[in-house]
Design brief:
- 28% of the residues lie in helices and 32% in strands.
Length: 146
């Protein structure tokens, strides 16, 4: 079973031009406007990954490039397909630390991820950069932080 723990997100920027329904107003109003969409996206990502739904998982990343600089998109997909599958029982918990919005309209989301499977367990800090592709949020880049 996948458990998600999402904490308060802090949004520190203005209105992005790409938003389907632009958010306006104070930081508090911006937070209320964008938080649900980003939380829902992270929930879909965790569920697809945890359930081994590789096609849905891969569709949550931009199609244009690999989220890692050291692999091509096709190499990255092959790597993820080999590691994610319905037969692999995993649990993923996220503790959201912060969310920002760059001038380019890219969300910058930082969280702690606790990953556990039958053979491996780790806890890492991650950063996802999310952008809109085809009207939907997608992961453009993924980094493990020190």
């Amino acid at each position: 079973m996948i458990q998600r723990t999402l904490f308060l997100i802090f949004l520190l920027c203005g209105n992005p031009a790409w938003a389907a329904t632009p958010c306006n107003g104070s930081t508090e109003e911006m937070l209320q406007c964008y938080s649900p969409e980003v939380k829902a996206f992270l929930g879909r990502w965790v569920r697809a990954w945890g359930n081994g739904d590789i096609d849905t998982y891969l569709a949550l990343y931009t199609s244009a490039r690999s989220p890692r600089n050291d692999l091509s998109r096709s190499e990255w997909e092959a790597h993820r397909r080999a590691r994610i599958g319905p037969e692999k029982q995993i649990e993923i918990n996220l503790k959201l630390e912060s969310m920002g919005l760059e001038d380019s309209g890219i969300f910058d989301v930082i969280f702690t991820q606790h990953y556990r499977s039958a053979s491996y367990e780790d806890r890492v800090r991650k950063r996802l950069f999310l952008l809109r592709e085809g009207g939907e949020l997608r992961i453009w880049r993924e980094e493990v932080l020190p």
